[in-house]
Amino acid sequence: MQINTSLVFIVFVSLIFGCSKEISQPITPQIIPTPYSQTLIEGVFTISNKTGLTFDEEFSVAAQFLKEYIETGSAISLKSGTNIVFEKDETIEDVEGYTLDVFPAKIRIKAKTVQGAFYAVQSLRQLLPIGLENNSFTKAEIAVTCVSIQDKPQFSYRGMHLDVARHKFSIEFIKKYIDALAMLKMNTFHWHLTDDQGWRIEIKKHPKLQEIAAFRDQTLIGHFSDNPQQFDGKKYGGFYTQEQIKDVVAYAKNRFIRVIPEIEMPGHAQAAIAAYPELGCTKEPIKVAESWGVFEDIFCAGNDSTFTFLENVLDEIIPLFPDQYIHIGGDEVPKAHWKTCDACQKRIQDENLKDEHELQSYFIQRIEKYVNSKGKQIIGWDEILEGGLAPNATVMSWRGIKGAVEAAKAKHDVIMTPTSYSYFDYYQSTNPNEPVAIGGYLPLEKVYGFNPIPIGLPEKEKSYVIGAQGNLWTEYISDSEHVEYMAFPRVIAMSEVVWSTELNKNYNQFIDRLEYFNKRLDALNINYANHLYEVNGEVKMELDKIYTFHLNTLTKGKTIRYTVNGLEPDSTSLEYKLPLVISNSVTVKAAVFNNNKRLGAVFSESLNYHKAVGAKISLNVQPHHAYPGSGAYGLINGISGSNSRYGDKEWLGFWGEAVEIIIDLGTETEISSMSTRFHNGNGQWIYAPEQIELIFDDGAVSKIEIPISEELLVDVLVEKIIKTRYITLRIPNYGIIPDRKQGSGNPAWTFVDEIKVN
Ligand code: ACM
Ligand code: ZN
Question: Which of 263, 442, 473 should be mutated for ligand 1, with most atoms under 8 A from CB?
């Protein structure tokens, strides 16, 4: 049974205060991910030099973790004895489940497996003072709040990914990452080891993978969309030896994290082809990629020698990774070379394949057969559905959830990593000071709100969704502090998505727990992003067209102070109590304060009170669900979108569709200009239209040409003095993305920002 923990806690708080010793940790447990059920019990358990520990040999990894954690983190040494006991309990259904009872005289951990016992220890760890994390706890006794916890995960696959091909990270850091995942009860580390920009795992049979594929001559600096692109001129690379890989896998095993290697094929293979040009279709020498995106040099599917090479690679990979899964990539495979390659075309004929999509399916199925013959299973990105799914493959759904639904219907296991909830390389804040990221916008709350079970998936297919994971691609992340910044806190939210039940999830409670958890991350020297103390602003049109601006912040007990004179808010600025009524264009700056100390970054929003603000607006099509902005109204709410983050609340994204926008000003109004802007991030498949149409009450259709631009943002300004009630804007889609561009062959996206009428 699930218990509403917040209600239970209130009853006991005062009792515990009454008998507490030196409790420096919070009275109520703040465990992340939140357990299945927990009930406070009166009293505290005291850990000291007199405390004894007993465990079955089977549970020694979990019990030793606890012993070392306490003994390293404090001056306390545990004896042998029955104060803290680990017991095997076959009646616990879930192999990863456990119970943790902290009674005044005893701590009892029960589990069916050592993994369950390990998770009990991770929960107990979060009941102990944070000083234990960095060995700064100096008292002779630890007081532990008494509590009874029954816990088990929601999903069996709880993963986090790391791309080490675009940038490589030290073994020491990989272990730190694994430690943090284990603390969050995640159980899978997806290690993206090969890509166009580098091959990072030693393959003894193919030494050029180490000599050539592991290094690139230089690296793009700044953003891919910068014009002109710039490179750093510095050789970059390296690889992990098989000994290092074994060391990491063993380290992870002790923390109940399985390691899944990803070896990309047939695409994202440029580094390997640079080392061995005969693996490609053209056989011509190429370089390891120095920039980002999708490249046309892919493994040739026509030559059997390609498969021999990959089988040799797999022969060395498979023994290193004891887990059942090998990830073979399969994503983003441009077919241009296959179309013109004699060997590939011959394969299509010989195998009676319909087209290059079926050739991709042939490729994956042939590799799957080999991997299966070694007793392992493949995982592939959702493109492996195209041209026919390999019979035993697990699908990792990243381009939305369509692939997941299709795979589950076909009775294949599915792991959810849709970009809109799982891509931690996206921006997490609209603050303009954020470090450069690939694009997109994925704030913490959105990750937290993710339900891995796709809406509408029939009951009998739900069990094929085995879990979810956060993905961290590192094109724009070159050091480990930045990895931590992008991963934390979003992976913390993801841990609750995959472990806790939907019923037990509550974002406001999560934020309270996270605020405390951040102190643990401080002690662990993890460079998490802290956007808890930022201000969020929202415009609302009240009755009678009163335009108001609402400010809020996530955490409790803080003060928001603001200015409207352009100055940075300080401890003497006005305190925000009620929504601001806006009747002129104004810039509002605000920040969160605690006892007159500013906590977070200054928030700034320019409100442009133009003539269309508060008008009626309609669209012929809805924006794409991944980029809805604030809906149609967001186009005339007085707020412009971010200059870099088209995924924010203000930009509206449409995929492949022509858009017609009708603004009704309510009464005939004299206007002198209409302006808007389009995003043009071609690297992200976004194109400004080449022409738009504008229509006023007189019915005349003005065609406005938009010159082709390499700029990221394309402004449109139409100046015309006219009386009109209606303004119609027709925005055709750019069309199909041309060859040699990112996303070629796919429809372009249209992103439109605020439509200002003056
Ligand atoms: C991917 O993001 N290309 C799987
Ligand atoms: Zn070929």
Answer: 473
Going by pLDDT thresholds of 50, 70 and 90, the confidence category of residue 431 is: confident
466 and 372 within one domain: yes
What are the start-end ranges of the H helices in 242-391?
Answer: 242-253, 270-275, 304-317, 336-340, 342-350, 356-373
Q: Are 327 and 364 in contact (CB under 8 A)?
A: no
Reported as type and span, the H/E element at residue 187 is none
Q: Which atom of ligand 1 is nearest to the CA of 329?
A: 4
339 CA from centroid of ligand 2 (Å): 8
User: What's the pLDDT at 15?
Assistant: 35
Q: Separation of 329 CA from ligand 1 center, angstroms?
A: 8
Amino acid (one-letter) located at 584: N
β-strand 597-598 against 603-607: which pairing, if any? unpaired
pLDDT > 80? residue 5: no
Q: Is residue 626 within 8 Å of residue 654, measured between CB atoms?
A: no
pLDDT, mean over the chain? 94
Cα dihedral 746, 750, 751, 753, rounded to 10, equals 180
Q: Domain count for the chain, please give it.
A: 4
Pick from 151, 186, 207: which residue ends a domain?
151
- Residue 647 banded pLDDT, cuts 50, 70, 90: confident
Residue 345 CA to ligand 2 center (angstroms) comes to 8
Residues touching ligand 1 (Cβ under 6 Å) are 331-332, 381, 398
Encoding tokens for residue 725?
A: 């009630």
Q: What CATH code is carried by the domain that includes residue 541?
A: 2.60.40
Q: Exposed/middle/buried for 221, CB within 10 Å: 0-12, 13-18, 19+?
A: middle
At 546, the pLDDT band (50, 70, 90 cuts) reads confident
Q: Which of 196, 332, 461, 648 is catalytic?
A: 332
Does 92 lie in the same domain as 143?
Answer: yes
| DSSP type of residue 486 | H
pTM of the prediction?
0.89
- The residue contributing the CA closest to ligand 1 atom 3 is 331
